[in-house]
Amino acid sequence: MPLTAPALTAGLVGGPPQTPPIFNPGAPGQPARVISADEAVALSRTGYVEADVRFMQHMLVHHAQAVEMVELLKTRGASETVRRLGERIAQSQQAEMELMQEWLSSRGLPAAAPDPHAGHRGHAPDPNAPVMPGMLSPAQMAALAAASGAEFDRLFLQGMIRHHQGALDMVEDLLAHPDTAEDPMLSDFASSVTADQSAEILRMQSILSEL
Fold first, then answer.
1. Distance between CA atoms of residues 53 and 108, nearest Å
2. Which residue, 40, 58, 56, is CA-closest to 48?
3. How large is the angle between the packed helices 184-210 and 80-105, nearest 10 degrees?
4. How far is CA 172 from CA 44, 92, 193, in A?
């Protein structure tokens, strides 16, 4: 006796479709384990690679110098326009520093990079060499601190433009690595750095041309 369509359906399907299991790879030497969909979503939101960590640690150092430059601006600059711009930059970068510190601490990671003077290990830092892209060298920071008035404003804008461009280069370098910036917060932060600092570079170039 031939099977009817309902009978065929029941025989082939045998109930609702089953969701395939989700496996999370274990640590080295440990087996993978099955996790729930909610756990998989949570893991996808907190995943990071070594390049992500280095980026956040190095960007903290980068931002800290920008804030230090604005501190000098408060007492040595002459232009009110430059001073207001500097205050906005410092407020933005201080808020981003708090965000980066929270990102690192929530993952049990140190805020300090193990290699802020990469390239100088075992040697005294070169006063003419910046710690990382775009940062002012110790000699340039000393020159900025020694300047005042319109000269300071010009040096500040020129230095901060290079500083911002260095941050853009750091974001570009991060995104050039595989599997980086997959964490949503880090991805949003990197995008914000690109958008905000690109706009600030244009603003500073405009102000500099009028000094």
1. 11
2. 56
3. 170
4. 22, 20, 11
137-154 pLDDT, tens digit each = 999 999 999 999 999 999
Give the closest residue to 186 by CA, choosing from 89, 21, 57, 78. 57
Residue 188 has pLDDT above 90, yes or no: yes
DSSP string, 134-191: TPPPHHHHHHHHH--HHHHHHHHHHHHHHHHHHHHHHHHHHHHSTT-S-SHHHHHHHH
Helix (H/G/I), strand (E/B), else coil: 200? helix
Mean pLDDT score of the chain: 82
What average pLDDT does this structure show over 70-87? 96
Rounded distance between C-alpha atoms, residue 113 and residue 26, angstroms: 27
C-alpha–C-alpha distance, residues 48 and 40, integer Å: 14
- Per-residue DSSP letter, 33: E
How many helices (H) and strands (E) are present in the chain, helices listed first?
7, 2
User: What pLDDT digit, counting tens, does each position of 202-211 carry?
Assistant: 999 999 999 8
